[in-house]
Amino acid sequence: MFSLISFVKRVQKGSNPPQVEKKSDPIQFGILGAARIAPDALVKPARYHDDVRVVAVAARSKQRADEFGKTWNVPSTYGGDNGYQELIDDPEVHVVYNALPNALHFEWTMKALAAGKHVLCEKPIASNEEETRKMFELAESKKLILLEAWQVRFHPAIQRVKQIIDEGSLGKMVSMSSDLGVWNDVFFVKNDIRFDYSLGGGGLMDMGPYPISCMRYLASSNPTVDSAKTIIRSENIDRLIDAKLTFPPSLPATIKTDSAMEGWGPFKLFPQWIKMVLRVDCEDGAIEIRNFVLPHVWHSITVIPKKGKSWVEKAYKPKEGLGEEWWSAYRYQLEAFVDKVRGREPQAWRSAEDSIDTMRIIDTMYTMSGLPLRPTSAYTP
Ligand SMILES: NC(=O)C1=CN([C@@H]2O[C@H](COP(=O)(O)OP(=O)(O)OC[C@H]3O[C@@H](n4cnc5c(N)ncnc54)[C@H](OP(=O)(O)O)[C@@H]3O)[C@@H](O)[C@H]2O)C=CC1
Ligand SMILES: O=C1OC[C@@H](O)[C@H](O)[C@H]1O
User: Where in the numbering of this chain does the GFO/IDH/MocA-like oxidoreductase domain appear (predicted)?
Assistant: First the structure.
């Protein structure tokens, strides 16, 4: 009962967060694409960050940008063929948030960096490893901040899982597994960008960054891919990927992503809505986190020692440092991004290598399962 009440309170406040007073010279963000994710990932978190203001949005159609601007209180709107570039060139915009389809991440992030803007780019950061390397090379050469928006790393829940593993009471890690699946009909729209190959789509592109980056973080190392099998949903587009990996020196892991989970029960009649589990088995026990993807909505961390009783933990707020029970993972991410732009040490960060390695692993899984890499952008900087 208590946990239901706190769930409702958390979700209510997180979805309609308070507007805080801004500093006199806040960092100003512009959004590329009136995307569905943009309100949750940036607009709402910005409301309760005193050093962030969202000042512009660009969409392919001016009308769409205006509608977004009106709904979300974003003053400058750009549209039409040159709308994205106009936003980038707007001197009021200091940071570009790239919420475009995966295949456009490279081109528009490169253009924003070239114009001297920091970039927060949605996951997966690019269509493949080659593009990712170029993006980070440019960011580094221009001394600009580029972050792949993988919010999980910034939330206290996954940090708590790592802390428990690193403390060592469960012993050495012996294996990891992740099972991530959603029911197609509920989560995706008709003609979803996620399943358009020319837009960098694919089930693994959409879901893969979560388990791959989580495991890299928990193991503090970079795996090799041993095998990957797929079930196709359309040409070049994976519904399911089932992969085996090894983290050095010999820690096995399995990753499954399924963008159209089958039902269960007689004739598989009953839908399985969602599955988002990550489990680490250790010599003296195991730890399992449910809903590691959007931990702020709800999550559970179950610790299962071989000797003694299991227990469940929640970590919506860090033991020390900034944060509230209702803060979203995106808000924690924004805190770190702003710290970095301001030259402060963030509480957590994702390195260029993390994004590059994650894309390399995705590329390898596609190749091993007989699918082509997602197409490299035709844009040449
Ligand atoms: N971190 C997270 O939790 C999440 C991240 N994402 C990531 O965010 C990105 C956007 O996802 P989502 O918001 O769901 O997608 P949407 O389809 O809602 O948004 C995509 C945006 O890209 C613009 N766009 C530009 N060119 C095209 C094109 N050729 N076809 C379709 N759209 C185009 C769209 O139009 P317009 O310019 O007119 O606005 C739209 O605003 C993806 O990279 C996805 O992986 C998505 C969900 C969660
Ligand atoms: O990033 C994401 O997180 C949640 C998923 O359901 C969604 O498809 C994806 O884009």
Answer: 158-283
